[in-house]
Automatic annotation (TrEMBL):
<dbReference type="Pfam" id="PF02597">
    <property type="entry name" value="ThiS"/>
</dbReference>
<dbReference type="InterPro" id="IPR012675">
    <property type="entry name" value="Beta-grasp_dom_sf"/>
</dbReference>
<protein>
    <submittedName>
        <fullName>Thiamine biosynthesis protein ThiS</fullName>
    </submittedName>
</protein>
<dbReference type="InterPro" id="IPR003749">
    <property type="entry name" value="ThiS/MoaD-like"/>
</dbReference>
<dbReference type="InterPro" id="IPR010035">
    <property type="entry name" value="Thi_S"/>
</dbReference>
<dbReference type="InterPro" id="IPR016155">
    <property type="entry name" value="Mopterin_synth/thiamin_S_b"/>
</dbReference>
Amino acid sequence: MKILYNGKELLVEDGITIARLLNQRGLKPDTVIVEYNYQLVMKETWSNITLKENDVIEVLRFVGGG
C-alpha cells in the first residue's frame, strides 16, 4: 500500500499502524511528533491508528543544539 511519508511516496504493508511504522523506521516515540492527514496526533493513539492507502504522515524529530 502507498502512503505519503514526509512528502515522499512510501510503500508499507497493509494494516500497519503509526506506532509500527515509526518502529520500523527506527524512530523513538519520545523524540518525534506525528501529523496524520494534517492533524497532530498524540503518541498514546499511534498504536490505534491503522494507515490506509494514500494517507499522509509527517514526522518531525526533536533535535537539541547549542
